[in-house]
TrEMBL record:
Coiled coil: none annotated. InterPro entries: ARHD_Rieske_2Fe_2S, Cholesterol_7-desaturase, Rieske_2Fe-2S, Rieske_2Fe-2S_sf. One of its GO terms (molecular function) is oxidoreductase activity. The lineage of its organism: Bacteria, Pseudomonadati, Pseudomonadota, Alphaproteobacteria, Hyphomicrobiales. This is Rieske (2Fe-2S) protein. Gene3D superfamilies: Rieske [2Fe-2S] iron-sulphur domain (2.102.10.10).
């Protein structure tokens, strides 16, 4: 299943970002050429978080001992053994990833089929909300898309694309893009109002 996990804007070229998805730690990173990758946030060597690492060109380097992981998450260089041909079995765990309409999505279990296609929106914010999706979407007049965690919605007169993921129980991370140019400020106000209402409803 394809799950939105970040706004593309928030992972610029050469950057890494840690994402918690249903308790699983992921690293989202973008090589200098612009391609987004999503891997388990764990170095196969000694378990260091790869999100602490650094990007050089099209590779992600672990901060601890500098092992370098390239396309497909294979380790291609071990600085302490520069002449070693690294066995292909040494690799990080990579997941299928795609980017559409300003959102980054991951398919962890490989059941998502063709990646979704969305119209480009203007990124507004990824907002952490202390509520579950059922509570939140009782408050959102939304039109579901064919993809399970994407909807089109209108809040306070602003048209949104909303994607979301669940970091853990009772929590939601909402990724919001607007379809109306110039509406970003009103959109941010509408999103914060929505968060307040969802968290108040959950607490009631
Ligand atoms: S823990 Fe990553 S290179 Fe050693």
């Amino acid at each position: 299943m394809w799950v939105p996990i970040a706004l593309g804007r928030d992972v610029p070229r050469g950057a890494t970002r840690a994402v918690l998805l249903e308790g699983e730690e992921l690293v989202v990173w973008r090589g200098e050429a612009g391609t987004v990758q999503v891997w388990e946030d764990r170095c196969p060597h000694r378990g260091m978080r790869l999100s602490f690492g650094f990007v050089r060109g099209d590779a992600l380097n672990c901060l601890y001992h500098g092992w370098e992981y390239g396309a497909g998450a294979s380790c291609r260089r071990i600085p302490a053994h520069p002449d070693l041909t690294v066995p292909p079995t040494i690799r990080a765990k990579a997941f299928a990833a795609t980017e559409t309409g300003g959102l980054i999505l991951v398919d962890r279990d490989g059941t998502g089929g063709p990646p979704p296609l969305m119209l480009a929106g203007l990124p507004v914010a990824s907002l952490a909300i202390a509520a579950d999706p059922e509570t939140l979407f009782q408050l959102v007049p939304a039109t579901p898309r064919p993809d399970p965690q994407l909807v089109e919605a209108t809040l306070d007169g602003v048209r949104f694309h909303l994607g979301w993921h669940v970091p853990g129980p009772g929590r939601i991370m909402l990724h919001a893009l607007v379809l109306d140019p110039g509406a970003e400020s009103r959109a941010l106000i509408a999103l914060h109002k929505l968060r307040s209402e969802a968290e108040a409803r959950r607490a009631a």
